[in-house]
Design goal:
The chain is mostly helical. The protein is about 70% helix and about 0% strand.
Length: about 325
């Protein structure tokens, strides 16, 4: 690398890069929202071809048909997300001095490419039967497609956080116990979201049709058990565990003397999202899976994950930046 190229790489705050990475973090939720709505109304296979829709980038009638609009908008937003990630990865490569952050940009690009391929395979392999399974191979691919989406959102938020002014300017280190507890909370959320993906793709959202009880007689345990009921009940138990864990995490953040204002505000947002998520989950049962409420539940769950992840990421800031790059 020549001296001129090296001089352009600095770990100082770069407003344009920070705002662009933040815009990418916002756009990913446009993509998540459209994907959740498409799944909620069962429009994932309204176009049987891919990457085009009915052989076109502008299929006839898609602006006037809700199912076609949902799926094609999801595809267009995914393409936009891919372009944003490409620009972000190259921008970090050209202008960012921190090698770990440049690598994270390339990792985000790999994830968005994998996610796009999974989305395409879900369509193209939809008719391929799998022996001894009720779902086709394409339908099975919905599961990793949903999980990778959550991981990708976290990576984008990690990049946006690392480019932000609060991160660049640094803060007092928080307790290691707080940072470790954040990892536990993120792990629990990933387990819960994986169960949610499995539940959604196995049509188990109403396997237990009452709430807060688990049977129509007011009992806390289901009267009969099968795979769908087990998924639904596991989702409810995990929600209870997460409520305790996330409220405890927020309390620990507020008590830690090293917590920055960003973390203090983020902890409040996390608890508010948790309350909204529980309310939306209950309303899915009470409204018999209204598509808009179901979509909101999926989006809120993703927001809760990335908020908790970002708080944990900030809690590890000083360990991540343990080998700072000299300023240019």
């Amino acid at each position: 690398m020549n001296d001129h190229a090296a001089s352009r790489r600095t770990s100082t705050y770069k407003p344009a890069l920070a705002w662009f990475s933040a815009a990418g973090g916002i756009w990913v939720f446009v993509l998540v929202t459209l994907g959740a709505f498409t799944t909620s109304i069962g429009a994932g296979m309204v176009f049987p071809d891919w990457p085009l829709s009915d052989g076109s980038i502008d299929p006839h009638g898609w602006l006037h048909n809700v199912a076609m609009f949902a799926e094609h908008s999801h595809r267009l937003s995914a393409m936009t997300m891919g372009l944003i990630t490409i620009v972000l990865a190259f921008w970090l490569w050209k202008r960012e001095s921190r090698s770990w952050l440049r690598k994270l940009g390339w990792f985000a690009l790999v994830l968005v490419l994998v996610q796009g391929l999974l989305g395409g395979m879900r369509v193209l392999l939809n008719g391929l039967k799998v022996t001894d399974f009720t779902m086709t191979l394409g339908q099975m691919i919905r599961i990793p497609h949903g999980i990778v989406a959550q991981l990708y959102a976290c990576v984008l938020l990690a990049i946006a956080a690392a480019c932000s002014r609060p991160w660049i300017e640094g803060h007092i280190p928080v307790a290691r116990s707080l940072a470790r507890f954040g990892i536990i909370c993120c792990s629990l959320l990933l387990v819960q979201l994986t169960v949610a993906v499995l539940m959604r793709d196995n049509m188990a959202g109403l396997a237990i049709p009452v709430f807060p009880y688990s049977n129509i007689h007011g009992g806390w345990l289901p009267e009969t058990w099968n795979f769908r009921v087990t998924l639904n009940f596991t989702h409810r138990v995990m929600a209870l565990i997460l409520t305790v864990a996330l409220v405890s995490f927020a309390w620990k953040i507020h008590r830690d003397r090293g917590s920055s204002l960003v973390m203090q505000v983020g902890a409040v947002v996390m608890v508010c999202l948790l309350a909204i998520q529980i309310l939306l989950g209950a309303n899915i049962i009470w409204t018999q899976r209204d598509p808009l409420i179901t979509t909101g539940h999926v989006v809120c769950g993703a927001l809760l994950l990335v908020t908790t992840f970002t708080l944990t990421w900030f809690a590890h800031r000083d360990r991540i930046e343990s080998n700072p790059v000299p300023q240019a």
